[in-house]
């Protein structure tokens, strides 16, 4: 009983109680008077203090809340922001800039890594494209938002991963929050009988529509499997199996065909890792397959045009509709967007139309023969639905080239890390990162989400993790040799 007599230092700290009470009163007063901007000030101050005292935990906090963030759009200023993640990420970027101006220190070991160099080249060309853009302010906002994603989630995250605990918790934090959004989505979806028609929006406001939701599920799925079947306490195993079951059900009822395909691609790559197949043979085989498909494209087009199965609640028909390019509106609209993007590229092959401008510029490039029932003459239907085709429309062929260089260096590094590391937690989490990236960039053929916090956290964080483990292995090897 003696231990209860002495209060903890926190309980004895009167200033903390006073500040907390003032915080609650101020926010309550601001909300009651509908001064919502004023209500955000205490939270902003709290984030600033947090970044000064423990930046690493603040970044992990951002990872944890990202699946539950909500995007607000202002049509007047053509501005969309994801709350609370994007303001926090922007604040961390500004804080790191001030820290650099103060001490002038840069993480040179990271900056000299090939993946980082490729990423900086990509950002550099994107910045140059702002000056040649058809809509400079739109492109500038797109470039700045990319910077406040990359700086905290790739560069600052690199130092977060110095902690082994943080490396193991990165995916877990995202997964737990994602499972909460899955529970909400499945509950809402159940009110409509889990129909395919309503599956496109029931995840709102956490995800804008089912393809973004499916992207996150596919990225996390390999980690969920690893987490469920690794050696751990019985209670943790039951919890992890529950998470895996929930994510599996959510993936099925997302009705996202691109998500399903990307998971298949990820498991195909896992087979290469598991059976230690030489990547040279894999790339050579892929080249042969792609070349054969290109040579026989007319034959395949004839087969696809004969497929008139449209997406529906029937899962078998929904899968068959993937190759339907004759009557399925979703597939046909993608082709319409891609063809519009390619015509935009033909007009400006070097610099493109500017980052973030596709959705405002593609309307005149549509052909009436390719438009569908969901096409718009005003061209306000969103992006190009491809991470690669949209890129050449907005940033020309150099933009696509820098993206491909980044991907090649990233995956070469990732497979080197997997081959170098011994079996253990780090190797397992590296495999999860690689498989997640495979799922994302395969998904990227059909959709693009890098301008969203939901994808940016996973993509840039995973890239940072792979680079960290690569440099850590080299550092440990040098220490052993000396």
Describe this protein's structure:
This protein has helices at 9-12, 14-32, 36-53, 55-65, 85-103, 108-111, 114-131, 136-160, 164-190, 210-229, 234-252, 257-274, 279-295, 297-306, 315-320, 329-347, 358-361, 389-420, 425-443, 453-481; strands at residues 70-74, 79-83. A two-stranded antiparallel sheet has the order 1-2. The chain has 20 helices and two strands. Helix 3 packs across helix 4 (55-65), helix 5 (85-103) packs across helix 8 (136-160) and helix 12 packs across helix 19 (425-443). Strand 1 and strand 2 form a beta hairpin. It is mainly α and 482 residues long.
Keyphrases for this structure?
mainly alpha, globular, about 475 residues, about 70% helix, two-stranded antiparallel sheet, 2 domains
Compact overview of the structure:
By secondary structure, the protein is an all-alpha fold. Helices cover 70% and strands 2% of the residues.
Number of strands: 2
Could you say how many structural domains there are in total? 2
Helix content class: over 70%
Order of helices and strands: HHHHEEHHHHHHHHHHHHHHHH
Poorly predicted residue ranges:
1-11
Question: What is the 3D form?
Answer: globular
Structural class, judged by helices and strands? mainly alpha
